Each structure stands twice: as structure tokens, then as C-alpha cells.
């Protein structure tokens, strides 16, 4: 059974339509979650998957974990920090998840996909709206502060950040080359269990790590303990918006 985070990513892939024998681009591939799903689905496996990330560490991990697929020419990992570096390659399907907030000129970035897509090609451009997250916590004011802090902070590996990127995505698309050939959706992710594999659990751990330096550690631990207790008593609730745009050339 898929964990919730993997389930959400599988649903993003489904928005692309058939991926069988396609030229596929995963831009901002990270540790390779989408790659794992694409390779596991033998009936719909792409012909070639380009795995692109600006992080040397992430690309090294892809090379280590998928050496066989790379040798067979099924997977092509590259460390690039801009879309233009991919020219003259063209793709039938593209997925770009949680990348846009890190980009300086976001509109130029979106428009660049027109140079990478084949005719009738499809791109999924998606982003969590971190500032929209809510937890059912007895520490209401603390929860608000923690979520806003997490959404607003620029982490060491980021050149740019925007915790409201998800909700701003439709506005950017409306000004882009794809304004008439795109569809924007908002998925409300809802979870009732605080456990590994769920996005609320992951986000809480990330919040804790970031907030340790500026919040009382004991209070932070009490906040986590409260979420765990609510989950055991079936009172836990987490929700966040995932904004999804389908771009078609």
C-alpha cells in the first residue's frame, strides 16, 4: 500500500495522461520519488527519463541508486540549474513539483517550457501552498506562528523562497504563454493520522528542525506530542493545499 505522499505524487503523474514510451522530464527530481514510480509501472514506463536537479548531492544519489537504468539509457541524470540548459532536448511529458518558489524570474521559467515540450506535450507544474497548512492543535497561536515561520524562511540551499507560491500559481499562469492552454486546480490534502509517510508528519518534522533555533525547544516538543496524542485519540487533523497546473503545448 502506498504511503500518502507517494499517493499524491502518483496522482500528479496520472494528470499527464499516458507516459508509455514517452520522452519524460522530471525537473527538480530531488531523491527520485517520481522516477521510482515511473520505473515501477512497466506497462506505462517512459522511453527515457531525464532527471534534473540543481543539487549535486541529489544527482549523485540518483546515479548511485539507479546505476542499472542509467547504463541501459533509460535514465539520464543531469545537474542543471536552469531549463535552458536542456536544449535542444524535447519532451512529451514534464513534471515540476515544488520548484517554482526557488526560481528568481518565475514567469520566464514557466514560459521556457514551451521550448522543451513536443507538440501536444503536457507539463504538470505543481506546488504546495505551505502557508495554507493547518493542524488541529491545542497550541493554536504557536501552530500559526510555526507554519508562517516555515513558509517564510529561506533555507540554506535556497536562493529564493515564497511560502505562498501555491496560491500565486494561477496568477502567474494567467500571464504566461500557456494562459489559454492550461488548467489550474487546487487539491485540498486532508489527513487524519500523524504517522511517517503522511505529509503532515513530514511537514511537522521540517517545522521542528527549522524552528529549533528560534522557539523554545520544550514547547516545540509539547506541540509534537500533542499531535501524536490527538492521532492516537482520533482527533488529529491536517490539511494543506496543493496547487496543480496542467500546461499543454
From TrEMBL:
Highest taxon listed in the record's lineage: Bacteria
Coiled-coil segments: none
Pfam families named in the record: Methyltransf_31
SUPFAM superfamilies linked to this entry: S-adenosyl-L-methionine-dependent methyltransferases
Record-linked InterPro entries: Methyltranfer_dom, SAM-dependent_MTases_sf
Boundaries of every Methyltransferase domain copy: 19-143
CDD domains attached to this UniProt entry: AdoMet_MTases
Protein name listed in UniProt: Biotin biosynthesis protein BioC
Species this chain originates from: Legionella busanensis
Amino acid at each position: 500500500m502506498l504511503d500518502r505522499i507517494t499517493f499524491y505524487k502518483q496522482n500528479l503523474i496520472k494528470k499527464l495522461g499516458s507516459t508509455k514510451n514517452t520522452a519524460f522530464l522530471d525537473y527538480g527530481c530531488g531523491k527520485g520519488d517520481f522516477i521510482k514510480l515511473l520505473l515501477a509501472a512497466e506497462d506505462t514506463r517512459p522511453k527515457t527519463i531525464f532527471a534534473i536537479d540543481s543539487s549535486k548531492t541529489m544527482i549523485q544519489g540518483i546515479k548511485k541508486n539507479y546505476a542499472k537504468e542509467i547504463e541501459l539509457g533509460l535514465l539520464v541524470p543531469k545537474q542543471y540549474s536552469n531549463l535552458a540548459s536542456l536544449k535542444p532536448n524535447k519532451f512529451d511529458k514534464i513534471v515540476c513539483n515544488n520548484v517554482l518558489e526557488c526560481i528568481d524570474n518565475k514567469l520566464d521559467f514557466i514560459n521556457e517550457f514551451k521550448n522543451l515540450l513536443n507538440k501536444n506535450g503536457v507539463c504538470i507544474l505543481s506546488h504546495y501552498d505551505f502557508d495554507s497548512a493547518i493542524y488541529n492543535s491545542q497550541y493554536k497561536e504557536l501552530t500559526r506562528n510555526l507554519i508562517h515561520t516555515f513558509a517564510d524562511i529561506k533555507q540554506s540551499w535556497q536562493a529564493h523562497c515564497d511560502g505562498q507560491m501555491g496560491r500565486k500559481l494561477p496568477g502567474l499562469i494567467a500571464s504566461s504563454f500557456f494562459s489559454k492552454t492550461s488548467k489550474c486546480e487546487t487539491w485540498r490534502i486532508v489527513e487524519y493520522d500523524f504517522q511517517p509517510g503522511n505529509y503532515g508528519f513530514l511537514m511537522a518534522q521540517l517545522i521542528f528542525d527549522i524552528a529549533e533555533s528560534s522557539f523554545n525547544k520544550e514547547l516545540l516538543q509539547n506541540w509534537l506530542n500533542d499531535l501524536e496524542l490527538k492521532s492516537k485519540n482520533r482527533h488529529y487533523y491536517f490539511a494543506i493545499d496543493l496547487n496543480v497546473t496542467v500546461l499543454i503545448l
